[in-house]
């Protein structure tokens, strides 16, 4: 099974989460490509897709939104999963955070199977407004590698189960 992990990230934290997801899927024996959302032209050859996006002001990264809209028909024909990154606290490890309104609408558009929100990361020296202002009080890294790996393992199990059942 060949899986595409794609992402939209402005500061690199979501790209690193996508890498953790990709590594977790590879550890489960799946063939995985990881590419930025803006680099992908076609989904030929992929059996499943995972789309990640950084959250900014309750909106998914523009590249992730565009990717889903551009590839709606293709995504509807294969297992698709979403993840978001963003909370600048430990809330994503303590409780399930539902997708924001726009992400939920995109999930419905492509019949995505599942969504998870992971903690975000903000560097203390973040540039640009409002990141610089937020960094004064919310700088830190709340990404939980164990949570990401567990989710990747769960997705891999679901996908392997479908292959066994011939879905």
Question: What is the structure about, briefly put?
Answer:
It contains 7 helices and 8 strands, in the order E-H-E-E-E-H-H-E-H-H-E-E-H-E-H. The protein is α/β, with parallel strands linked by helices and 167 residues long. Helix 1 packs across helix 7 (145-165).
Could you characterize the architecture of this molecule?
The chain has 167 residues and is α/β, with parallel strands linked by helices. It is globular. It has 7 helices and 8 strands. The longest helix is centred in the C-terminal third of the chain and has 21 residues. Helix content is 43%, strand content 23%.
Write the topology of this structure:
Blueprint: E1 2-8, H1 13-27, E2 31-36, E3 48-56, E4 59-60, H2 62-70, H3 72-76, E5 80-85, H4 91-94, H5 101-110, E6 114-118, E7 121-122, H6 131-138, E8 140-141, H7 145-165
Parallel strand pairs: 1-2, 1-3, 3-5, 5-6
Antiparallel strand pairs: 3-4, 7-8
Helix pairs in contact: 1-7
